[in-house]
Design brief:
The protein has helices at 2-40, 45-48, 63-70, 77-109, 115-124, 130-143, 150-154, 161-171, 176-184, 189-197, 202-217, 221-226, 235-244, 250-271. By secondary structure, the chain is mostly helical. The protein has 2 domains: 2-65; 72-276, MetI-like fold.
Amino acid sequence: MNATKLRASLSGKLGDILIWLFLAVACVFVVTPLLFMFTASFMPAIDIMKLPYPWVSDHIHWQNYWNGLRGPDGSFIFLRNTLNSLVVALAVTVTTVILSSLSGYGLAKFKFKGRNAVFMLIMATMMIPFETIMIPLYMVTMKMGLQDSYAGLILPFLTNAFGVFLMRQFLLTFPDEVLDAARIDGASEPRIFTHIVLPNSGPAIATLAILTFRSQWDNLLWPLLVVQSDEMKTIPLYITKFMAETHSDEGIMMAVAAMASLPMFILFFTMSKYFISTEGLHSTIKG
């Protein structure tokens, strides 16, 4: 009996060791490119190209960040392009969270004829690659005169099928008893949604917000089509300026990439606490 327990204990410890080993290796693969980016952003280009790569530079090359802010032409357009990316990403994130939450709530908690057909139709749009609708969407944008504007960057991405799917699946697990109790107390559906459903959907909303913000912050293809002026370009388009230079400086490129990554790190660490939220339902409707 003792031998059996010992083998089971050793087997469990071996399994834990293998899991931790796998996580450590995965962490190395994820962190190494980020570490390379941040260390290279403080190096002159000649040091970055050395083999083996010197992870610690002899001196900190702050000039990379200053030149990254100045831009290839010295116009400091980086600040305006950063503002453009923030406006577009925040606007799309807010509308996606709101519209996806409303749609997911309706599909999860209201029974009506054709509900499943509507949901499957929405899911079917996920199977259509963006490249197949890109040109028709661009033509519509041109006909409406929305090119080179915030409206042209934001309107095509107000919501998405994945957001609807995520919120519906999350709200399917929401207790119907809580909603029924609120209705008995005389609460209207909009009040139930804003005072009960949304406050208790933190994990799903945080996940959807981060994924949506990241997708728009990194979006290169659509802004490349609809934006012509330097003043309306976004961060990905700004970075391509340095790649298009005949004599590109890798240190400046890494500095720009590091500055462009900062908002994503801030957003993730700000909202990551909602991923592990274990609070109970806040079912009290304040008058």
